[in-house]
Give the backbone structure.
Amino acid sequence: MQRLFFEPIHLNLPDSDISYYPDFLASDIALNYFEIFKKTIPWQQDDIKIFGKVHAQPRLTALYADNNKPYSYSGITMQPHLFTKELLDLKRLVEEKSNTLYTTCLLNLYRNGKDSNGWHADNEKELGINPIIASVSLGQKRVFHLKHRTNKNLKHKIELENGSLLIMAGKTQHHWLHQIPKTAKPIQERINLTFRSII
């Protein structure tokens, strides 16, 4: 497998430890993974409750793990499938680059610009203190927004490109929120894989 592994871009943001590898995977390799996952992953669309109202989650998801531990967020509890060969291959690459072992991968399929992921932090109790979240992007690039929880002047945005890897570590989840916003632009589909460890 072709791996590029150039030096990361470190986002110089207070109260955070965020590294971005724009060329983690070669473009053609990333697109091949995209096609495999789009066709073989059992995608689901759960309902979420926001301000007392129930809505269909604006993206499709799936959960995989090397154990049987579920993952809960936004009132949703997901049960994991066992890792496929392709997911295990990517998991090993991400573990090598981030020097971290992961138990679980939450996959998201953004079908168009209307699909999104609202402001949140990956700070669920089962992730432990200072969780490391590693996100691989496949397909359409999307804008990734960050904002500080208490200092409203601290904001940042970055385009997550096809084949890129974003690693959020340290106290990032304590101090920062992130989102993938909607866009009115006509865009293609994106899959991202967010590796994490459930303790």
About this structure: The first strand starts at residue 9 and ends at 11. The first helix runs from residue 27 to 40.
